[in-house]
Write a structure and sequence with these properties.
With 473 residues, this protein is an alpha+beta fold. It folds into two domains: 223 residues, Cytochrome Bc1 Complex, Chain A, domain 1 (2-Layer Sandwich), CATH 3.30.830.10; 180 residues, Metalloenzyme, LuxS/M16 peptidase-like (Cytochrome Bc1 Complex, Chain A, domain 1, 2-Layer Sandwich), CATH 3.30.830.10. The chain contains 17 helices and eleven strands.
Length: 473
């Protein structure tokens, strides 16, 4: 019975990793989708008056010189490590090995060094050590959560995964079969098909247009030797970003990093892909599929995380479609007209193609009216702008909700990594809400006129449509 349960658990873990990879591809939906009164949520918690006075320091490991951002928090005996290898995500897979990054992410926890998959999992479970990997579009990331009592053992296990992964044939074939099955099942769900077609339509032959799970033929060919070569060539201290948070100081944290990343090459991985050249011409490619719901996914060009317009655009998007039921689009199309269960927008911050994305689903008979209202509301947004009261409400939510990001030590470590990726500075945690606070209505109205143009909305619509003139039903 134990063997059967263990086998089931291994299958479940691998499947979860694959699903996480899929979720990573579809992009981070707005953190504020399904908005609520954030200030009410934190009113009676320890987060209520938190001002983030805890300073972030940059540490450097004594032996290998690995730099990391550290936030020390000794309230609980827990340590969280987050790291990413830049320019090693699935968009950087070799053209004939599409999907190898996702396979590596799913297999790195399936045995390392002398430990086979089940033995490694049991050792980590006994010590409450949690390790995970994910291949995003641009970067390949990993995370570790452990108690301080088992910090050294956690470092040992993670190091083995990074430097001596087993890729045993049975595990390889099992995960390969799961990914191939997931590839087939993508088209069973209309939202997945929509997003796959959207990526191809937006990016064409650019690597961003790839299926994040890869191509079946490439996956079938991948061997353990290919995966070892991937790890050897992609995991380097030269393109490593590290965030460390919890009950650890600079000295013990530096020694921990030396142990985790020992054996990785120092040279920076020299990998690049060109910027994505997308033509924003207002086209909506139609995919016919009878599932009872019509769906739209479309985008306009946006800007990167460090652009001077980022925070005004961030605020504008929240008001337009990012505030869940309270957004302009939702209030008009869902609440007033009852044409959709939900409409959303979010900023996608991919390195080579930042986008402002909008999407919704509606029944076939309501779809065209909902789409028309989307365009009308966008025009109104541009023509009339927003006033001081609406700006203040948005800023109040965006500042209050930020406190919730600090409820988890894992979130903090992830933020520390992102702070380095986007060069936000050591004092970002203290300054972030100030950036929001200093936004004026005129700042938001300026970016609305600059970035919100319905003529540029380009993407895909999927569902049941009336035949075009001269076309057979």
């Amino acid at each position: 019975m134990r063997r059967t349960n263990n086998q089931t658990r291994r299958r479940d873990v691998a499947l979860v990793l694959i699903l996480l990879a899929i979720v990573g591809f579809w992009g981070c939906r707005s953190k504020f989708y399904g908005a609520y009164k954030a200030e009410k949520t934190i009113e009676n918690t320890i987060l209520k008056n938190r001002t983030f006075n805890a300073s972030v320091e940059e540490i450097c490991s004594p032996k290998l010189g690995i730099k990391a951002y550290l936030l020390k928090d000794s309230h609980n005996p827990i340590v969280s490590l987050n790291f990413s290898f830049e320019n090693t995500g699935y968009a950087y897979d070799d053209a004939h090995e599409q999907g190898i990054a996702q396979m590596a992410a799913a297999l790195l926890t399936e045995g390392a060094g002398k430990y086979k998959a089940q033995e490694l999992k049991e050792k980590m479970e006994e010590r409450a050590i949690r390790v995970g990997f994910a291949a995003g579009k641009d970067d390949f990331g990993g995370s570790l959560l452990t108690t301080t009592d088992h910090l050294q053992e956690a470092a040992q296990y993670l190091n083995l995964m990074l430097t001596e992964p087993r890729f045993d044939e049975a595990d390889l074939q099992r995960v390969k079969a799961q990914i191939l099955d997931a590839l087939k099942r993508q088209h069973e769900r209309p939202e997945r098909e929509l997003e796959l077609v959207f990526a191809r339509e937006m990016y064409g032959a650019h690597p961003y247009g790839r299926n994040p799970l890869g191509q079946a033929a490439d996956i079938e060919r991948v061997s353990a030797a290919d995966l070892r070569r991937f790890v050897k060539n992609k995991f380097s201290r030269g393109n490593l970003l590290v965030g460390l948070a919890g009950d650890v100081d600079a000295q013990s944290g530096g020694a921990f990093l030396d142990k985790v990343f020992a054996g990785l090459p120092a040279d920076k991985v020299q990998a690049s892909i060109p910027p994505a050249e997308t033509e924003f011409d207002g086209r909506l490619v139609q995919i016919r599929r009878g599932d009872g719901q019509n769906m739209l996914l479309a985008a306009m060009p946006a800007i990167g995380r460090t652009h001077k317009d980022f925070y005004p655009l961030f605020t504008a998007n929240y008001i337009w479609g990012g505030a869940g039921l309270n957004s302009r689009l939702s209030q008009r199309i869902r609440e007033q007209e009852g044409l959709t269960y939900g409409i959303y927008s979010y900023l996608s911050l991919s390195d080579k193609s930042p986008l402002l994305i909008v999407g919704f689903a509606a029944t076939a008979d309501n779809f065209e009216k909902a789409k028309k209202l989307l365009y009308e509301e966008t025009d109104k947004f541009v023509d009339e702008g927003i006033d001081a009261e609406e700006t203040a409400q948005a800023k109040n939510y965006l500042t209050a909700s930020y406190h919730l990001r600090f409820a988890s030590i894992e979130n903090i470590a992830e933020i520390l990594t992102a702070m380095q990726k986007y060069n936000l500075g050591l004092d970002f945690l203290q300054k972030r809400n100030d950036y929001i606070a200093h936004i004026k209505p005129e700042d938001v109205n300026r970016v609305i006129k600059k970035y919100f143009n319905k003529q540029l909305l380009t993407g895909v619509e999927l569902g049941e449509f009336q035949p075009a003139a001269g076309e057979r039903k």
